[in-house]
Recover the amino acids of this structure.
């Protein structure tokens, strides 16, 4: 069974080393991990701009996999990487299981309020809003409710733990628990 390994690790200087470590965890559970930087099953049209070739390659990988594990650790802000979120949604729309993990245990609402700093204010009903009057989502989730909702609805699992910042993009404990859960779900399915 093939698992697409979505996440912002593609931006790391040692992305290939992280990919190899993640593939090894997958292999230990009888799964084949597919990292976004791998050559796609069908090469995109070389005449297209690089950014579009990357898109088509990643979509081909996703379509060729049985499930997806998304690293939803906050990336450059309070929330997960938007590209990873898109990939999770695409796999969910294909009707396949999705799993997620975060190497930050702090909940989304608290992270959003911290990011807003003094720009957040309490409404009369006790909820929070930003400077533009938009409510701050507070459902005690690790990220936007649509992400964890999609994971739950697909039969997947979400794992989180607090990892020190210097190890945040390399610690694979929560990822390993997701791989084990994915192996169970895929074998049962």
């Amino acid at each position: 069974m093939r698992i697409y390994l979505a996440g912002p690790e593609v931006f790391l200087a040692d992305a290939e080393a992280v990919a190899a470590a993640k593939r090894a965890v997958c292999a230990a559970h009888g799964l084949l991990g597919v990292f976004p930087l791998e050559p796609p099953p069908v090469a995109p049209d070389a005449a297209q701009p690089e950014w579009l070739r990357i898109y088509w390659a990643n979509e081909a990988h996703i379509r060729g996999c049985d499930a997806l594990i998304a690293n939803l650790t906050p990336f450059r802000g309070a929330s997960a990487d938007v590209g990873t979120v898109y990939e999770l949604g695409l796999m969910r729309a294909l009707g396949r299981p999705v799993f997620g993990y975060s190497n930050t245990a702090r909940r989304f609402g608290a992270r959003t309020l911290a990011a807003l700093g003094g720009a957040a204010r309490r409404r009369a009903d006790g909820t929070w809003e930003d400077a533009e009057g938009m409510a701050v989502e507070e459902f005690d989730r690790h990220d936007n409710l649509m992400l964890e909702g999609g994971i739950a609805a697909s039969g997947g699992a979400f794992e989180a733990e607090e990892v020190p910042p210097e190890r945040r993009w390399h610690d694979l404990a929560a990822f390993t628990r997701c791989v084990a859960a994915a192996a169970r779900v895929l074998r049962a399915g």
